[in-house]
Specification:
Blueprint: H1 5-23, H2 25-30, H3 39-60, H4 64-84, H5 90-117, H6 131-138, H7 152-163, E1 168-170, E2 177-181, H8 185-195, E3 204-206, H9 210-215, H10 222-231, E4 236-241, H11 245-249, E5 263-267, H12 272-281, E6 284-288, H13 300-307, E7 313-314, E8 327-330, H14 334-337, E9 340-343, H15 349-363
Helix pairs in contact: 1-4, 3-4, 4-5, 7-12, 10-15
Length: 364
Amino acid sequence: MQLTVLDAVTWCSDNYRSLNSVFDPNLGHLMNIGVGNSEGFTAGAIAFLVLNAFLMILASSFNVVLLCMTLAVELLTICFLLFTLENLPLPFEIVILCIFGIICFYGATASLANSMFGKDLVMMGPSLFTAESSKKNTEEPPPCICPKSHCTSGLRTIADLLNTGAVCGVPTDTVYALAASCRHPQAIEKVYRIKDRPQEKPICIFISNLDQLRAAAPPISPLLWEFMENVYPGGVGCIIKKGEWLKKLGVGEGYSRVGTQDSIMIRVPDLTVLVHLIDMTGPLAITSANPSGEVDSTHHDMVISRLGHKLEGVLCDGESDEVVASTVVNCTRIDESGITILREGCIPASKVMQIFERVKNRAV
């Protein structure tokens, strides 16, 4: 149960009222307290001093106001002891009562204001004993290498890992993804194991720009070229026919592990940091950075917490630009029967169809 200042104020006020009955000479006389029989009250007060000392230690782990309040109660107990010895200076009693009243008023006001507005409007002070240790506990080392995306050294670190066959989490223009070099088929296989992804689900590839695709000279019709020029770069993936031209693109030994036997989905991301990374590694095999069947990762912290222990690195870029993945378009029969939307993602299907109709009408 959480200890609040209002609870402490109520407790201290009730106890002080009982103490004040002792301070009142008339009530003390009715209780038969005198110099000769005050040993029991003195022993009780000393026991309470010890108990309150433990309460002070506990209060110091909450905030300064509670600590000051328990300290004031300690002083009030000392006043009780001095009273039993008939040696309580009046100025000392007045000062302690004033201090106790100020602390109670401030603590009650701060607790009420902060609880009403849900913010720390009135300072209560930090905890004294646990702040440093809790900070140390939260600064646990990440399970993998996690460089920042805005640093050139961070890009080089992730690029070096990918080029040696590692699997890393990377940001995209949609959601975070797992990346593996197309030159390392064992890394692509590892992606399937990390995600627990069914083998029948193909993995797409990312390239940095459309000129990279032109250099590979795939057998693509003018209509498909025009369509891709209108949707790239961006959150649309085009499925086209697979062929040996992929090896010229730089897919290499991972040819059989990306796409299906007959087709491959290609994306050109609209994210500068990822484009630079692809320029340093060549085409990357990409799939969303989440366990199969679970929601997409929209922050690098989600990738680290969910899959970090299985990855060699995560390129940290903060919040993703989108909360859903890309839109997937089947373009394998674009000249015969047009395009087919296989998955609607961050780009609405209606917008993709409008782009295709516009391109098709221009080609006629």
